[in-house]
Amino acid sequence: MTDVSYNEFLDYVDKMSLLSELECLGVTLTIEALDQYNKKELLKRLSQIGKLTAVKVMATICMTYIIDDLRYWEFIVNSMLKLGVLTELKVYLDYLKNKCYKGFYVNAWQAVIDDAFNLPLALSEGELYEAYVNNFLMIQSCPVLYSLNFEKILQKCIKTEKFEFAAVLLHYLPETKRDLYVREIVRSRTLSLDLDNLSKRGCGALDG
Q1: 10-60: pLDDT as tens digits
Q2: How far is the C-alpha of 14 from the C-alpha of 37, rounded, in Å?
Q3: What is the 3-class SS of the chain, one letter each residue?
Q4: Which range is the signal sequence, renumbered to this chain (predicted)?
Q5: How far apart are CA 194 and CA 165, in angstroms?
C-alpha cells in the first residue's frame, strides 16, 4: 500500500469492508477476485439470501462498482422498504438522484419523508421546530418533490400548530384540496413573521 492516492486508499478500505461483509454471508473472496467476479452473478446470488445484510451488500457493490442497472436498485430499494430500514434507504435514494424517477423511487421517497415526521411526543417546542426545519430541508433536496403527497404531513403541521410549515406545503396540494386547509392556516396571527423566519432558515420555498 505504498505510493497510492487518497482516493485509491479509500477504495481499498471500502473493498476490504465489503469483503468482510461478504464473508459473513458465506462468500469468501480476495480484492482481486472480487474485482474480476461477474457482478451480476454476485448480485443475483446475494438477492437469493433473503437477509437485510445481503441487501445492504448489494447496494454497496452497486455503488462501489457504479452499477446503475435499475433492476438491481429496484430490488434493493423495495427490500429496504419492506424491511422498514428507512434511514439507510435515504443514502441509496441520494445515490440514485438524477439516475432514476421510476415508481419505486417515488414510493421510497414518500416513505422516507412520511417516516421523518413520525416524531417523539416528548420533544420540546424548540426541538420540534428544529426537527421540522431539518425535515423540510430534506424535502427540498428531493428530486421527485412534485410527485409526492404531502397532505398527511400538512395535517400534522396544523395539528402541532406549525402553520408556517403547513403554508409552504399548501402549494403542493391539488387546488381542489387547498381550500380545506387555508382557513385553518391563516388564523395564525404570526403567520407572516413565522414564514419570514422560516425563509431565513432556507425553508421558505420548496424546489423540485
Answers
A1: 888 989 999 999 999 999 999 999 999 999 999 999 999 989 999 999 999
A2: 16
A3: CCCCCHHHHHHHHHHHHHHHHHHHCCCCCCHHHHHHCCHHHHHHHHHCCCCHHHHHHHHHHHHHCCCCCHHHHHHHHHHHHHHCCHHHHHHHHHHCCCCCCCHHHHHHHHHHHHHHCCCCCCCCHHHHHHHHHHHHHHHHCCCCHHHCCCHHHHHHHHHCCCHHHHHHHHCCCCHHHHHHHHHHHHCCCCHHHHHHHHHHCCCCCCCC
A4: none
A5: 9
> Which whole-number Å values give the CA distances from 94 to 24, 61, 101, 108, 189, in the listed order?
27, 16, 12, 11, 38
Cα–Cα distance list, 206 to 60, 65, 91 (Å) = 31, 33, 21
What are 97's three cell numbers? 438522484
- What pTM value is reported for the model? 0.88
- Give domain limits for the chain: 6-105, 117-200
pLDDT at 186 over 80: yes
Residues 6+ positions from 21 with CB-CB distance below 8 Å: 53, 56, 57, 60
Report, as an integer, the average pLDDT of 121-148: 93
